[in-house]
Amino acid sequence: DQQVKQNSPSLSVQEGRISILNCDYTNSMFDYFLWYKKYPAEGPTFLISISSIKDKNEDGRFTVFLNKSAKHLSLHIVPSQPGDSAVYFCAASIGGRGSNYKLTFGKGTLLTVNP
Amino acid sequence: GAVVSQHPSRVICKSGTSVKIECRSLDFQATTMFWYRQFPKQSLMLMATSNEGSKATYEQGVEKDKFLINHASLTLSTLTVTSAHPEDSSFYICSARDPTSGSPDEQFFGPGTRLTVL
User: Fold this and answer.
1) DSSP three-state, residue A1
2) Does residue B113 register a pLDDT over 80?
3) Which of A39, B74, B93, B105 sits 20 to 30 Å CA-CA off A91?
4) B64 has a chain A CB within 8 A of its CB
């Protein structure tokens, strides 16, 4: 059972436009969410995170929105750049400091930003 | 930022042999390290959680006798795939937590190891 779902396997966006990557989760116990970026044959790189007590977190061109009632989060990248082309993974964890910090990952979305 | 290395980056071995993969935190001490495997176009699946000085905690369905994990120091964890078979061919990625990080759930990932079993 996939507890973290990224239903779009791929997304293509024009340079300069906004990229919106979506993620849904089923486990209401998740209270911390992270986005990772991954290039082929490399490990994921942390991008941005959000705690369940917030509904928005912004870092430069990257903004993550969390809608707890809908169990949905999204990553906005604006403006998109060709260097943003990569696979983006959504991940979730339970319990934060009190937990074992296990992350549950979605299957990823391949973002292609066209010049 | 925190750096995690893995060695080797890729390995090809014959069926029935054992392969050891090392994961090192280079600029921080990691009390907890994680081992994942990823099949093509699939998610990263957590295999086990490795705590320094104690036994690893394996996820359901992962054979502990096949995937031996040792976390002997605060900067090194090893994964040994014993008696490897072609179905063990995969991309293995480790990650480590930096307990001093401002984000308690943030994990820093190694570059991964591509294992091919012939």
Assistant:
1) coil
2) yes
3) B74
4) no
* Residues A6 and B41 sit within 8 Å (Cβ to Cβ): no
Task: For strands A104-105 and B4-7, give the pairing.
Answer: unpaired
**Cα–Cα dist A67/B72, whole Å:** 41
Q: Using an 8 Å Cβ cutoff, are B20 and B80 in contact?
A: yes
Closest-CA distance, B77 to chain A, in angstroms, reads: 16
B74 token code pair: 């605060």
Q: What is the CA radius of gyration of chain A?
A: 14
Q: What is the pLDDT of residue B102?
A: 65
Query: What's the pLDDT at A97?
Result: 53
**Structure tokens of B4?**
């995690």
CB contact at 8 A, B65 and B58: no
Other C-beta atoms closer than 10 Å to the C-beta of A2 total 14
HEC string for A71-111: CEEEEEECCCCHHHCEEEEEEEECCHHHCCCCCEECCCEEE
Name which of A8, A29, A103 to mutate to probe chain B: the one with the most chain B Cβ atoms within 10 A of its Cβ.
Answer: A103
Beta bridge partners of B68: B80
Does residue B37 contact residue B16 with C-beta atoms inside 8 Å?
no
Cα(B8)–Cα(B20) distance, integer angstroms: 9
pLDDT given at position A95: 67
